[in-house]
Fold this protein.
Amino acid sequence: MADRILFSKFGRARFISHLDLMRTIQRAFFRSGIQIKHTEGYNPHPFVSIALPLSVGYSSDCEIMEFVLLGGASYEDLPEKMNAVLPEGVSVQACYPAENKLKELAYLNCIVRMDYDNGVPEAAEAAWRELLSRESLVVKKKSNKSKLGYTETDIIPLIHRWTLTAEDKAIRLDMVLSAQNPGLNPVVIRDAFCEAYPELTPDFMAVHRKEALDINEKPFR
Amino acid sequence: MDQRLERILPRVQKPARYTGGEYNAVIKDKAEIDIRFALCFPDTYEIGMSNLGCRILYGVMNREPDIWCERSFAPWGDMEEEMRKAEIPLYALESGDPLAQFDAIGFSLGYEMAYSNVLNMLDLAGLPLRSADRPGLTPLVLAGGTCCYNPEPLAPFMDLFVLGEGEEVTLEYLQLLKQAKNEGWDKARFLRQASHIPGIYVPSLYDVTYHEDGTVAAVTPKYEDVPARVTKRIIQDMDKSYFPVKTIIPSTEIVHDRVMLELFRGCIRGCRFCQAGYVYRPVRNRTPDLLAQYGKQALEDSGYREMTLSSLSSTDYPCLMELCDDLLDYCQARDIGLSLPSLRADTFSMGLMERLQRVRKGGLTFAPEAGTQRLRDAINKNLREEDLMQSVRTAFTGGWNGVKLYFMLGLPTETDEDVLGIADLARKVYFAWRECTPNRARGVRITVSTSWFVPKPHSAFQWEAQITREEYQRRVDLLRDAFRRDRSITYNWHDIQTSYLEAVFSRGDRRLADVLEWAWKHGAKLDSWSEYFDHQRWMDALAACGLNGDFYAHRERAKDEVFPWAVPDVGVRREFLWHERELCYQSVTTPDCRTRCSACGANQMLERGRTCG
C-alpha cells in the first residue's frame, strides 16, 4: 500500500495552486534526498497524489498526500527532513503507511469566516441561520456535459452539521461538509447566500480546513 | 500578510507571483540591517525570476550582514488594478514592505520595451518619476543591465546607472550610501561622490547639447572631477566570482524553471550585428571542475530535474566535452536533463546534442541569420552552408523531424538575392530531410522566422539605419511569395511595431524621456506583451513631444557623430567597430577571438592586459 503525509498549508503558501503545490513537493523530495516511487513510462516523474485539492487562498491543517516511500528517511524523521526544504507555509506533520482508502475520506471540518468590515448587519445572523436550516437548497453549477449547460445540486444534504457564531465583524461557521462524490466547497454556500440575501453579502470569506473525517467523523488519516 | 492583499489575491491570476515565501528566499531582521535594497525587475515574476543576473546580485547582496536585498516585479494588469483600488503601494516580496521605505531601488534593464514598466513601478511605489523630483537621499533609484550601455532615454528618471557586471560595484556604492546615511549627506553630495566609483554613471552630472539638426553636439561633465567616460565593470576572475548555488526556487512555474549554469562571459564570435557579443567582452571562462561542482550542488539544493549550460555561445566553451562527461554521468544516473540553449551548426555540436538529448526528439533551432554566404560573411556570422546542411542531415537521419531557422531582414548590404536566399536555404533543408529521414510518413516541420534588424549601440552597426517599415514589409512579402508553394515550410515574421520602437529607444537620447513619460501617462505598460502593447500610443507620444522616431531608427549616422551614449565605455574601441563595419561592406570576415585577437581593446580591461579567451 501507499504511504502518506499529513501536512498543513497556511500563510503565504495558501496562494500556491494545486498543480504548483504538487511540483513544489516533488522538488522538495529531491532536495531532501528522500527517494519515492516514480511513474513508469517514457518520462518518469515522482508519483504523488493529493487527496482533495484545496482552493487557492484557503488554509488547511489536514492535507493528505499519497506516494510510495522507497528510502532516505523513516516515517519518524521524514517530516523534519521535508520541512527543512519546503517553502514557508507548507509543513509536514506526520508520515505513515496508508491503512485505508482515500475514498473513505467522507467529511471535511471547515471553519468559514464571513467578514463584514462595517460590523455584522443586524439581519445577517438570522439570514445565515435561515439559509442553512432550509429543507433543500438547489444551486446551479455550470457544466459542459449537461444539455442545459448547467447541473442542479441540492447542497443541504452535503452540509452534514454546522454551528454559527456571530462576532462583531464576522460570522463564523464551523461546518462539517461532504468531502467528495460530491464534495461541497464553502464558496458555493456563500454564493447561494449572496443570491438569496444580496444586501447581506459579506466583504470577504476566509476558509480553513481544520480536519478530515471518516464516515464516523473520526479523524481520517 | 497585509489583510488588503489577502483579499485581493484570490481574485487575481497566478497569485503565487505576489506572495514571496519561496524556498531560499532570504528573510532578515530589519533591526540588524543598514541598507535595504529592492531589486526590481520591470516585467512579470515569471520573466524576472528567470534572470540569472538578478539571482547573482540577490546572492551577492544578501551575503553581506548589513544589507538586505528583496525583490519586486511588475504586477500583471489585473493585480495592478486591484492594488491601485485598494491603495496598496508596490511592495517587496520578502518583507511585504512598500518600496518607498527602502534605501535603494535598483532596476534590471534588459530590453527597451520594459521601460514603461520602470515608470509604472515607480508610480505604483508612490515615488515621483524624475530624479529631480526626489530630493531625499533615499530611496536612491538606479538601474543596471545591458540597456544601460545607452541609458539616455531613462536618464532623467534615474539617480545613477551601473555599467557592466554588478558583483563588486554594487557593494561599493551601497557602502558609500551607508556612509552617506550615517553622516547625513544630501543626495547631491552622495551622487557626486558616487560618480568617482568606476562603473557608476550619474546622468544628472552631465550636460547634453544638441546641433540644430537634432544630433548630439556634446555630452559634457558639469564638474571637473566627474569622468568624461565611464568604463563598465568586469569580473577579473570568474572562478572567484559568486555563483548562486543556493538560489530561490519559485513555488509557481517560471519561464526558465531549471538550473542555469553560467560557463563563461563574453563571446569569441564577433557577429557584427550582435550587441551582446561586443558589450560582454572580454571572454572569461570558469574552470570545468568548479562548474561541475556548482552544477551538482545547484541541482541538489534546488530539486530541479533540468540544467542548462548557459552562455552566449555555450558550445564555444573550451572544456565543454570534459564538463559534459562529468555532468552527464551525474545527471543520467539521476534522470536529470542537461541542455544547451544555443547550438552552433557544426559536427561537434551535433554530436554533443545527440548525447545530451534524453527523450523527446522535438525541434532543433539554428540561427543562420542571413540566407546567403555573402551576407553571412558581411555580418561575420561564421556559419557555412555545408556545416548547416551536415548538421540537419545528421539530425534528420537520427529521427528529428523539426527544424527552426532564424533570420534577420534588413541587415546592412542585404539585397533581394539575399532575401530569396533564405527560401533557397530552407528548401535545401527540406530536401535534406527527404533524403535522410528514416520515416517520411511522419512529415517534417521547417519553420523560418525573420525579424526586423535593429541596429544597436556599441555594435559594428551602430551607425546603420534600420530599413523602413515599408521596405521591411516588401522583403517579407518577397519571401512569403517565394514560400508560397512550400507546404512543409512555415514562414513567420516578427511583429514590426515593437522592432521599430526598439530601434528608436536603443539609440535614443535624453529627449525621449518625455516620450516615455507621455506614453506611460496615457497607459503604456507591459509593452513586451501583445495584450498591452499599443503602437499608436507610442506614435502619438513621439508626436506630442515633437520628436520624429525615424530620426532615431532610420537615419544613418556619420562616422564622427557624437552618440547619445558618449559616456558609457564598454572597453571596445570605436575605431575597431568602424573598421568592422567597413569589412562588412567588403564582405570580409574577421576570425573569432580564439583564432586571432583582433585588438578590439577589451583585453585592456583585464589585469596586466592579458589576452582573453
Observations:
- Chain B touches chain A at residues 1, 6-7, 9-10, 14-16, 18-23, 25, 249, 251-253, 300-305, 335, 359-360 (CB under 8 Å).
- The radius of gyration of chain B is 24 Å.
